[in-house]
């Protein structure tokens, strides 16, 4: 209606053009509308020169540009920051801004002195650590080599998860370092949570507006912009446009007496054109349990039939909870908001202690937070507590060289008892319990360039992956087997019991027998009185581990970030200290150098 009303006032568009715009707007998300706005603005700035340029050089538009350029630097561990950076570059180009996009790993810190406008998009890895590709740049900006930057204007956006202690720490670091060096922020840093799409899109619009305002208005450069061509019908699927795949297999691979339910999942990708490499992850969009959605609305005195607005569409509350919102895992923001609404003394006390708040949030599901104090909420209040649903990322446990147009996952079903009731994970229970074989699951491939096999097939590889952390190493070994790689392979695997929890036991024994895997060391914590874990096995073989490192071995760790990965890291330091006759500080430096050179890579969660 708004476009129709505007056309009646004073519009340069005819009715047909307005109808086309109105239809496009109705079918677009807020992020897409923001991008379209910037794109059309950019076209309006280049229109005057389009005709002249098309005569001399068809297919290219000459766009008058302010002097200088925008440099976008992304520090990405799993690909999210890179995705936001690519979107920003496309929007900048559409808005007529000269722009360069570069990975933090490829950017030389001394070049900051030559820049006028920089935007950094950074994710955070592990315990507030910079992503692997950004280590050198992160260290450079703290060093005495870093130049003063009085002529630099910058902006920073961080991606993270507020459930963790060091939320968006890398972005905070970059912001602080640049400010300390005298650079001027164009706008406040944005720290994004897991549902970052909408706030990131809004921030990008503001950031580019600031860039347009502040880029030097000196002699104009001429930048060649390709004329937009109609998009080809190419099979390209992404987080925003997932592929509707078919579930082929969901097979339990733990024994009947195991305390865990671990599933081997096989998904059909035939005809999708989707490809992946060993080390990548599969993004899975899932639907929540309808029974859980109904239990949540009942908990706050609602029926579920109430209407709520989601992305401009009016839908029933229970439908929104099933398909649009996170309704399993709690988070600190939800607990804080509900504490205020419910006036629960227990929750208010938790909110006052950040450490206890994170611990409670990480171990409590949303329905149990709502049960802390009976509180009547409106549908809008309930929705305001919740994050938007985001896909779960699972390490791929197959090599495409081995399985063709399939992708395999190793999924541990999250399940525990709360009183007399059962609690389950959203995505894991969807894949294992609610999705039947032959059913549809929306998926996409998430590249992970920071967890890859060495390019040289002669390089030895040490893999440490207890539990479902075994997933990428199954892919690694399949890949090396198919490539007939000569490099040695050593696997450390651990779980609770040999009888019920030795995941893919037959496969590993086959690889060991055939010589694809040279060494396999296992740790089953409950098969003896004293608990034995993978880090203990690493320490037992300290001399041999050090020998492999001296031979150039790459070390990979996959699994639990809070305990296992820390313990393995500490044991590796001990191995380097003892076998390399080094101090603790020297061992830490040695391990850090391995990480920089991509010889020590972690896929932890």
Automatic annotation (TrEMBL):
Annotated FAD binding sites: 328, 392-395, 410-412, 425-428, 605
EC number(s) from the headed UniProt entry: 1.8.1.2
Substrates-to-products reaction catalysed: hydrogen sulfide + 3 NADP(+) + 3 H2O = sulfite + 3 NADPH + 4 H(+)
Top-level enzyme category: oxidoreductase
GO MF terms, alphabetically ordered: flavin adenine dinucleotide binding; FMN binding; sulfite reductase (NADPH) activity
Subunit structure: Alpha(8)-beta(8). The alpha component is a flavoprotein, the beta component is a hemoprotein.
Name of the molecule in the record: Sulfite reductase [NADPH] flavoprotein alpha-component
Organism of provenance: Photobacterium indicum
Lineage summary: Bacteria, Pseudomonadati, Pseudomonadota, Gammaproteobacteria, Vibrionales
